[in-house]
Every structure is written in structure tokens, then in C-alpha cells.
Automatic annotation (TrEMBL):
Nitroreductase domain: residues covered: 26-79, 85-168
Keywords of the record: Oxidoreductase
The family this protein is said to belong to: Belongs to the nitroreductase family.
InterPro entries: Nitroreductase (IPR029479), Nitroreductase-like (IPR000415)
Pfam families named in the record: Nitroreductase
Species classification: Bacteria, Pseudomonadati, Bacteroidota, Flavobacteriia, Flavobacteriales
Keyword Oxidoreductase found: yes
Species, as recorded: Flagellimonas profundi
Descriptive protein name: Nitroreductase family protein
Length: 204
């Protein structure tokens, strides 16, 4: 591989150093805070939601819901305003923002204990599809969900969960503060398997 640009260096440096070989798209995925200044193609947007659509879900309830907006729109500005101050500082680099939500109860009015699990599965599908399209997703927990519920008229029974900054990989590192530039280039780490995968019984 010939490294020719800063973007190439960042992409190469962010490939996961896995202990065991896994699917290439999973190794290549990371969560940048910079993106190319390019609108998402409408076909790519539909592919992302189609991938989410076909995620597994308990009893096929498909409790996930999404609200999205493109940079330059009033809805986009409203989404940014619902983010934590830290996320506001860089998420405006993304050409596309997404709010995720889930339906809290089943069709018979009982709490859907697995709704968040199913939302996560749908976002896993979306994230992998995005990687295939050279699109990056940066999932954010830092959002004022109560404010977002009101601003976007989310009906009772549905719960805003997270926000996601989305765009094509690339962008200018100079758009970030020095601290965030360092974070962007930091070595990626994960806990070892022995700390979360236990054979036979809980071991910690």
C-alpha cells in the first residue's frame, strides 16, 4: 500500500490490530470527528436505512426509529443544539446528523425489555453497510434527549437514545482542536477477550 496523503495515514493507522482475523470492514471501522465536505448521496442514505431495516429484532417488532437532517437545514441546526457542548465542537463537521429512538412498549402495552438491544442491532447493520460505502458513523451518547424529544415532537411511548454524526471518510484535521487532533491519531485499544467472554461461568 502506497501512503500518499494525510487521510491515507489516518485510515491506515486506524485499522484495528486484532488478535484474531475478522471481517475486513469491521477492522477498518472507526469513529472520526472529521468528514469530507460532501453531501451523502441519496442512494447511500437509503442503503443505510435498508441495512437497519433488515436487522434482527425480538418478535420482529422493529422498535427502531430515526430522525435525520442534512447540513444547512433548520432541522440539522436543531439537532446540533441538542448535543452536549463537547459534541457540538466537532459534530458540525458532519454533513448528516441522525437521532436514534426506540418504541418503549410492545403491541400489548408491556415494556419492551429488548428494544434497546434491537436498536443496537439495527445500528450495527447500518454501521457495517456504511463502512462498505466508505461512510463513517460516530455514535454519540452526549445528547439532551429530553430536549430532543420536545424539539422534534417525539410522541409518548418513544424514547430518543443517541445521536450519530455521519459523512464520508476524509476531511481536514485542522478543523479540530489540538486535543481532538491528538485523539484522532491515538492508538486504538480494546479490552482482551478474557475480560468479557467467560466459558462455563462468570469469572470476574
Amino acid at each position: 500500500m502506497i501512503i500518499t496523503t494525510e487521510e491515507d495515514q489516518i485510515r491506515l493507522g486506524n485499522i484495528a490490530d486484532t488478535e484474531y482475523e475478522i471481517y475486513a470492514l469491521l477492522k477498518q471501522r472507526y469513529s472520526p470527528r472529521i468528514f469530507r465536505e460532501e453531501k451523502l448521496k441519496s442512494g447511500h442514505i437509503r442503503q443505510l436505512f435498508e441495512a437497519a431495516r433488515w436487522a434482527a429484532s425480538s418478535f420482529n417488532r422493529q422498535p427502531w426509529r430515526f430522525i435525520y437532517a442534512e447540513k444547512g437545514s433548520e432541522a440539522y441546526d436543531k439537532m446540533v443544539d441538542c448535543l452536549s457542548d463537547f459534541n457540538k465542537s466537532w459534530a458540525v463537521n458532519a454533513p448528516f446528523l441522525l437521532l436514534t429512538a426506540y418504541k418503549e412498549k410492545t403491541e400489548d402495552g408491556k415494556e419492551n425489555f429488548h428494544a434497546l438491544h434491537d436498536l443496537g442491532l439495527s445500528l450495527g447493520n447500518m454501521t457495517t453497510q456504511a463502512q462498505y460505502l466508505d461512510i463513517a458513523l460516530h455514535h454519540m451518547a452526549g445528547i439532551d434527549w429530553k430536549k430532543a424529544q420536545k424539539v422534534f415532537n417525539v410522541p409518548e411511548g418513544y424514547h430518543i437514545s443517541t445521536a450519530i454524526a455521519i459523512g464520508y471518510y476524509g476531511g481536514n484535521m485542522e478543523d479540530l482542536s489540538e486535543d481532538l487532533q491528538e485523539s484522532e491519531l491515538a492508538e486504538r485499544t480494546r479490552m482482551p477477550q478474557k475480560d468479557f467472554a467467560f466459558k462455563g461461568e462468570w469469572q470476574h
